[in-house]
Amino acid sequence: MWPKNRLIFKEFTDLIELNDIFVCIESKLDDLDQLNLPKGYDYFTKNRKKFERKSGGITVIFKKCLKNFLTFINTDSEFVLWVKVDIPMQLTKIMFGCIYVPPENSRYSSKDAFDEIETELITLKDQSTATALLGDFNARTGSLCDYIIPDDELSKILNYDGIDEIDRCLYDYYNLCLYNVSLQRSSEDKGRINVYGNKLLQLCKNNCLYIANGRIGNDKNMGKVTSKETSLVDYLIVSGDLFPYITEFEVIDFDSLFSDIHCRLQFNLSAMLPDDLLDKNNSPNVPSKHIRWIGDKRDQFVDSVESKLTIDNLSNQ
User: Fold this and answer.
1) InterPro entries recorded for this chain (predicted)?
2) What is d(CA 57, CA 54) in angstroms, rounded to the nearest whole number?
3) Packing angle between helix 113-124 and helix 195-207, nearest 10 degrees?
4) Per-residue pLDDT averaged across 221-228, rounded?
């Protein structure tokens, strides 16, 4: 939670100045509020409209020099503020969803929150090359899987023939293996998986998104709790091919100056791939997709290879 009166504290403004983009959840602003930010910073807000009392809300504070690279997208859902980031390097467009979903049993909760977020995510997908979701989801997921490994035997039964788009989605998890990111994530949250947790995991599986907590950075093999020292409900969730661009990820220890009960998430996103993932021409040196071997087509493959060898031999004679 981040009421605007915290801006009177120098420690808070100093923290803003350490970041290019600073996302505030539960900002509790209305359309008449004006923020007194450090010099060189601007902001965009999505305020809750359905209740008279100031509550909820999402605010993104950013350096003014980045303004031409950020596009804030107005949508209907009050649970997400979408901002498209255009990076004029190798990553072209990243769609960031800044999320605040109220607790399940609060007066502000909605059983449709995750459906709304997913519907808008799908609608906006064509405008970006990658997706990242971050914020307070109030979803407890433990260490349950956020991906699906397809059953090749079932594919045979269904006579599935490896359609490219379906194949890309089913085997997207292979990107984590390519980038040395563990499929098994860690979590210190040992509590019961709640309804929102199951909804979030299903959203990830449906859209080839992966929870970064417990997988990378200083949080690797940990999955630190982010709320009340017992639950992990604040997440960074990304497309698989974004992992190599994340150079830092950390759950910062709780500080009452910055929040009532939540820990901050901090991460760095580089516009360039690490050297070991670039070839000599500075092009990404990773496969674009996982090639699946279809056993039933072995004879067809052998025939194709033999035909190619025959043609090559004739050409060389």
Assistant:
1) Endo/exonu/phosph_ase_sf
2) 8
3) 10
4) 95
| Residue ranges in the chain assigned as alpha helix (H) | 10-17, 113-124, 152-157, 164-170, 174-178, 195-207, 298-316
Residues 6+ positions from 145 with CB-CB distance below 8 Å: 201
- Specify the 3-state DSSP secondary structure of 119: helix
- Spatial separation of the C-alpha atoms in residues 150 and 171, rounded to whole Å: 7
Q: Taken in order 79, 63, 67, 85, is the CA torsion positive or negative?
A: negative
Which residue is associated with the tokens 């997921």? 141
Is residue 32 classed exposed, middle or buried when 0-12, 13-18 and 19+ CB atoms within 10 A define those classes?
Answer: exposed
Single pTM value for the model: 0.82
pLDDT tens, residue by residue, 67-113 = 999 999 999 999 999 999 987 765 568 999 999 999 998 888 889 99
Contact 224, 186 (CB under 8 A): no
